[in-house]
Amino acid sequence: MTTLQGLVRQGLVVSAVPSPAMPARDHPLLVSIPLNGPEVMRCGGSIKRRVWLPPLSNSVSSLLRSRRRHLPVVEAHAFQG
User: Fold this and answer.
1) Are 21 and 1 in contact (CB under 8 A)?
2) CA 74 → CA 41, 42, 67, distances in Å?
3) Residue 60 Cα distances to 12, 19, 50, 63, angstroms
4) Rounded to an integer, what distance in angstroms lies between the CA atom of residue 14 and that of residue 33?
5) Maximum C-alpha span of the chain
6) pTM for the whole thing?
7) Cα gap 63→40, rounded to integer Å
8) Do residues 25 and 19 lie in contact, with contact meaning Cβ atoms separated by under 8 Å?
């Protein structure tokens, strides 16, 4: 998010971001406008190293793998831009 906010600060992009990433109301350069509805869904995934992981990272990876079957499955489409 830091890189994205940097691009916005430079005037290179306008971006939709999750609520926690929105700048404070008194930010000197950035203005945030809450977007209410429609609900937006996006596909995501996780990546990790193939080799040893620190214990906390390994726990998070294991948790994601164990919950994978409980998450909704959304058909992925290749980007055609």
Assistant:
1) yes
2) 10, 9, 15
3) 34, 23, 15, 5
4) 11
5) 44
6) 0.40
7) 24
8) no
Q: What are the tokens at 76?
A: 């992925």
Q: What is the pLDDT of residues 29-78, one digit of tens each?
A: 888 888 777 777 777 677 777 888 888 888 888 888 887 776 665 555 55
Closest alpha carbon to 31 in 51, 57, 45, 11: 11
Among 19-23, 26-30, 55-59, which is the least confidently predicted range? 19-23
**Cα atoms in the Cβ-side hemisphere of radius 13 Å centred on 31:** 2
Query: Can you tell me the distance from the alpha carbon of 67 to that of 46, in angstroms, rounded to the nearest whole number?
Result: 12
Peptide linkage before 72 cis (omega within 30 of 0)? no
